[in-house]
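Running this now, will post back.
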Amino acid sequence: MKAFKTNLTTQKVLALLNRFLDIRMGVLGAISMGLLVYYINSDHGILPALIAASKQAVYTLFFGALFVKMAENVAVQFEDRALAILCGGLTPSLLTSVLTYVLHAIKGTPEPFYSTIPTMVLGTMSFSLWAFLKHRSTYQAKQ
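Update: finished.
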């Protein structure tokens, strides 16, 4: 009986995490963005590139997962598709671009601006696409 209660607690924790984070997209983003930032900083040596890539990967794992869920949640707030995509794509993109730059600038990444460009470009595209898909699936289901 005790294992059953623990399992319910685990399910509740996972449900709560799923409400605010998209872990699958966080992991995918962490791997891809970490590799990109490593490549961008690789001219400065293996260790600085690994440190920059690790910071980016850890940041993207958590904040990328959070911002993907934010894009979904914002997109379904507007019935107008263009407004939903604009707000659902740009809000998390602006937040993550600023936070990524601050992370790299404060922590001594050799190329902080260039390390932020993939976040700005890929983040805007992916958050907008994610918002579009979530909006379409939500409002097609209601019709």
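The chain has five helices and no strands. More later if anyone needs it.
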